[in-house]
Amino acid sequence: MQGFYSKLDSSPSSSPLLGGRRDGPQIPLSLAVEAEKAQALLQTFSSASLLASGGLGAFCVAADHALQMPVIQNHLWLRAALDNATHGLVGLWSWAVVIGLRKRSDLYEVLLAGLLASIIDLDHFYMAGSLSVKAAVSLPQRPPLHCSSLIPVFCLTLRFLMWLGRLKDAWCSLPWMLFISMATHHVRDAVRHGLWLCPFGNTAPLPYWLYVSTTATLPHLCSVLMYLTGTRDVISAKHGVAIDV
């Protein structure tokens, strides 16, 4: 469109709206925006993000081996607390891979993602009707928040409520954060119990290598889906820079 240019060529000296000269060829806004979107998508698989997700996979292996130590296995409270903390750290790490850590508000988001990944296990106590850890880990069936079919339901419902309440763009990533927190928790539990896809039942337990590789790639999947739905553009505008996860 004549008279509209990308931020790639928006300096005062080159902007015709500010009376500057145009010494070189100008880039149409639509073409520049598409180029920036393509660059953001490519950066989803940057070396830094791949290194971070590889570290996430290595952390999963190290944490699971540590939890098998006799000193931990012989103490129910300690085992439950460390297992839940691992869920939180995996969720925290995964969301950090998605958004990066550029300012203090990013740290708050990452901590919130870790908290969401951890509090899922509170449904064990709800189902047991007791604060007893022994009762919570000895349930005859899996508690409600461990139904993987509910993940898209919760995320879409949250997105609808945000639209209904006209919440600002600053909250646009919240459904995706919920997705990462719940999905990483469920995939980790699936090594022992499989995925509970109600009303269809449970899958077979996931092979350990599949759990680790899925956990490491979930942040990239989430990032691509955010790009396809336009959420990444909104977050980039919020940060003032292109997200280069």
UniProtKB/TrEMBL annotation:
It is a multi-pass membrane protein. Keywords: Membrane, Transmembrane, Transmembrane helix. GO terms for cellular component: membrane. InterPro entries: TMEM267. Residues 10-19 have a biased composition (Low complexity). The gene is tmem267. It is found in: Membrane. Residues 1-21 are annotated as: Disordered. It comes from Takifugu rubripes. This is Transmembrane protein 267.
